[in-house]
Amino acid sequence: MKPAELRPLAEADLIDRTRHHRSVGGSELGTRFFDAAIAALRVIEEAPRIGSPRIGELIGVLEVRRFGLQGFPCGWLYIERPDVLDVVRLLADRQDVAVLLEPDPY
Asked: How far is it, in rounded angstroms, from Cα 3 to Cα 12?
């Protein structure tokens, strides 16, 4: 098992998306979203290669993988490092992946 380490932008994505789901669908939806996000992290911690490499191929960063959240149209973007999973972002399926190419201010 490799532990997932969320970059500040990934953590902010999780908080922002959870708040969004709570604001549009109530606390139950917000909780379901958060739980699905954490469950997806646990899956990739156990099996890092499960994520699709397609997004990395599209943006020219071959190490980047994507693993979707069950029941929600978004997914974690991460890079498998020797000892950890470097979790870069939590992006919606329709979100522009070019945001990955923007420098992380942290």
From this structure: 19
51 half-sphere exposure, CB direction, 13 A CA radius: 30
Q: What is the pLDDT of residues 47-67, one digit of tens each?
A: 999 999 998 888 888 999 999
Distance (Å, rounded) from C-alpha 69 to C-alpha 90?
A: 10
Percent of the chain surpassing pLDDT 70: 92
Could you tell me the strand order of the sheet in which 64-68 lies?
4-6, 85-92, 74-80, 64-68
Task: Indicate the helix (H) or strand (E) that contains 16.
Answer: helix 8-46
**For the chain, which residues make up each domain, given as ranges?**
4-97
User: Residue 102 phi/psi, 5° resolution?
Assistant: -75, 140
Report whether CATH 3.30.390.50 matches the domain 4-97: no
| Tokens representing residue 83 in the block | 């000892």
Query: How far, in Å, CA of 30 to CA of 97, rounded?
Result: 24
Cβ proximity of 23 and 102 under 8 Å: no
